[in-house]
Specification:
Blueprint: H1 9-14, H2 30-34, E1 40-44, H3 50-58, E2 63-67, H4 71-81, E3 89-92, H5 99-102, E4 108-114, H6 132-141, E5 142-152, H7 155-167, E6 171-176, H8 192-199, E7 205-210
Parallel strand pairs: 1-2, 1-4, 2-3, 4-5
Antiparallel strand pairs: 5-7, 6-7
The chain binds S-adenosylmethionine.
The site of S-adenosylmethionine has 20 residues, from helix 8.
């Protein structure tokens, strides 16, 4: 994603009612924020947030938290969020590395990774959101039967993930290398990147992992 500094982004985020300002303060009690005990799902690297806002609209019995580390990107999601009346979605401007400090063990039901940055160079492999280091973080916050759902059009990152995730001690429950022509497409909600890359003719890959 191309990033440019947007003046006022930090201020807009700091004063937004849709952004959890000190997320670690809610550790173990996010249900108080939502006012219910519904399961919580997060998207790591949500970008402009199309996917997670549509998921929240379609699933009112589930709580959603969108996580994006760049304020300039999160700002775009906030603009869209202001047009919606949804009680079951909040955002955080944090790096996914911090998830275990923010959520208690087992507090999350599902993690979505959509079109994560591929980091193609070997020396950057640790930055990939499906790397063993990140899978360890997800292991700490997911409940026992929790799952990670990952979509990408990047063949290299997908091949890497199909190997790296089992090496990290996880099971691949299902996968497809052509989501839009697969039974796994049922109920699929497209992300911004998914719309762009599938319009270019790129097949979309998806896997579901559990441990
Ligand atoms: N998920 C969106 C979609 O599919 O349209 C956006 C995809 S974009 C390529 C990846 C996003 O993940 C970027 O906005 C980036 O800032 C964010 N991101 C990457 N690494 C992250 C991390 N460690 N923690 C939080 N966000 C991250």
């Amino acid at each position: 994603m191309r990033l440019r500094h947007i003046p006022g982004a930090e201020e807009a985020i700091a004063s937004s009612p849709y952004v959890i300002q000190q997320p670690a303060e809610y550790r173990g009690r996010f249900h108080e924020l939502f006012g219910n005990h519904n399961p919580i799902r997060i998207e790591v690297g949500m970008g402009k947030g199309r996917f997670i806002m549509e998921m929240a609209a379609r699933n009112p019995q589930v709580n959603f938290i969108g996580i994006e580390r760049y304020s300039s990107v999160l700002l775009r999601a906030l603009q869209k969020r202001a047009e919606l009346e949804l009680p079951n979605i909040f955002f955080m401007c944090v790096d996914a590395k911090e998830l275990a400090e923010i959520f208690e063990p087992g507090e999350i039901e599902k993690i979505y990774l959509n079109f994560s940055d591929p980091w193609p160079k070997d020396r950057h492999a640790k930055r990939r959101l499906t790397s063993p280091d990140f899978m360890k973080v997800y292991d700490q916050v997911l409940c026992g039967d929790g799952t990670v759902e990952f979509k990408t059009d990047n063949q290299g990152l997908f091949a890497y993930s199909l190997e790296a995730i089992p090496e990290a001690g996880w099971r691949i429950d299902a996968f497809t290398e052509d989501l839009h022509h697969s039974p796994m497409a049922e109920g699929n909600v497209m992300t911004e990147y998914e719309m762009k890359f599938s319009a270019m003719g790129n097949p979309i890959c998806k896997l579901i992992a559990s441990r």
